[in-house]
Amino acid sequence: MWQKIILVFAAVLMLWVGGMYGIARWYIARHADEPFSLGVTFIPSYARGFGIDPQQTMQAMIDDLSVRHFRLVSYWETIEPTPGVYNFDELDWQFAKAQAAGVKVSLAIGLRQPRWPECHAPDWANVKTAPESQWYPQLKNFIGKVVERYRNNPALESYQLENEYFLRAFGECKNFSRERLIDEYNFVKSLDSKNTLIITRSNNALGLPVGQPTPDQFGVSVYKRVWDKTLTKRYIEYPFPAWFYGFLAGAGELLTGKDMVIHELQAEPWPPYGEIIDTPSEELAKSLDARRLKDRFSFGQATGIRTIDLWGAEYWYYQKVVRHDDSLWNAAKESFAPFRH
Q1: b/e per residue, 223-262, with b = 16+ CB within 10 A?
Q2: Rounded CA gap, 317 and 320, in Å?
Q3: Across the chain, what does the average pLDDT equal?
Q4: Contact between residue 200 and residue 163 where contact means Cβ atoms under 8 Å apart
Q5: Considering all CA atoms of the chain, what is the largest pairwise distance in Å, rounded to the nearest integer?
Q6: CA distance 59 to 74
Q7: What percent of the chain has pLDDT over 70?
Q8: What's the CA gap between 204 and 74, in Å, rounded?
Q9: Got the DSSP string for 225-258?
Q10: 324 CB contacts (<8 Å, ≥6 apart)?
Q11: Peptide bond before 269: cis, by omega within 30 degrees of 0?
Q12: How far is CA 286 from the centre of its chain?
C-alpha cells in the first residue's frame, strides 16, 4: 500500500512540476521577441546612508552604466513632513535627470514603498496607532498630489502602487486592508488612466494574484542568496530555477490576461548581522561578488520576464568610490552593455 501511495505521489508531483515547466516555456516563447528593459531601483536616502552623493550616484548610473530605466520612490514622510506642506525638490531633480537622458521611470506611490521600514509615513499621520478612517484620507490626498505632479512628465512610464502590499513577515506595516488597496487603485486610475499601474507581490511564494484589484501589470521580487538567522545560521541559496518565475508570470497571464515584471532582482549582499556599511568587504563578498552579480543578470534574463529592475545599485557605486573596489560596478557595466541604445 505504501509503495502505491509513494508511486501515486511521485506521479502527481511529476505532472505538477511538468505542467509548471510547460507554462513557463509557453510564457518565455510568447514574449521572446518583445523589447527587453533592464533597470535599477534608486533611492537617494539609501545613497546618503552610504556616504555618497545621490545626484552624483544617479548620474553615474545614467552616464557610465547606461541605465535607461529607474524605479524611484515617493516617500510620504519626505515629501509631506508637515501636514499640507509639500517638498518635491528631491523627486523633481530625479525626474529632471531622467528626462534629460531619455530615461523612463516607474514611480512607487502609496504608504508602503521600497526599503525598510517599508511603510514610510510621517509621524504626524500616526499610522501605527490611529484608526484607518483617520489617516487614510490624508494618505489618499498625498497620493493624489504625487500623481497630479508627475502624470504628464515625459519620463513617467508607470506607477507601482503599495510595494508588496500583503507581505506581513517583513517591515513595520500594520494595515493590510484589501478594500484600501482597491480604493487606492481606483483613485489613481481616476486621476491617470494613461500610464501603467503595477501591483507587486513578494518573493518566491507559489500563490497566484487572483484577488482584486487587477492592475495593468503585476510585479514580483526575486531574492537568491540570503543569511538564515533562524535555523542554519549560514547563507542559503533559494533553490528555485529561473523558469519558476516564468511559470509565475505565465500562470498569472493565463488567469488574468496581465503580464508580470521583476520589480526587484537582488543585486546587493545580505549581511549576517548589522548593516552593509558596518560589514567587512570579505564577508559581503560571500553574499555577492562580481561573479554572482553577473550570474544574477543572467538569471533574470532566463526567467523570460522582459522588464527587470535590479535592487542594490547604490551599493555598487559605494563599493567603487568609498571602498575603492570597482569589481561590482564593472560587472554591472559589462552586463548593461548589450542593452545600450
Answers
A1: ebbbbeeeeeeeeeeeebebbbbbbbbbbbbeebebbbbb
A2: 5
A3: 95
A4: yes
A5: 72
A6: 19
A7: 98
A8: 26
A9: EEEETTTT-EEEE----HHHHHHHHHHHHHHHS-
A10: none
A11: no
A12: 23
DSSP designation for 213: P
Whether the model pTM is above 0.90: yes
* Residue 298 CB partners (closer than 8 Å, separation 6+): none
Q: Are 199 and 178 in contact (CB under 8 A)?
A: no
Q: Report domain extents, the chain.
A: 2-339
Spatial CB neighbours of 101, under 8 Å, sequence gap ≥ 6: 62, 68
Residue pointed to by grid coordinates 516555456: 25
Residue-level length of the chain: 341
pLDDT score, position 208: 78
C-alpha cell at 215: 492592475
Contact 85, 146 (CB under 8 A): no
Torsion of CA 107, 47, 295, 155, to 10 degrees: 30
Superfamily of domain 2-339: Glycosidases (3.20.20.80)
- 213: preceding bond cis by omega (within 30 degrees): yes
Amino acid 186: pLDDT: 98
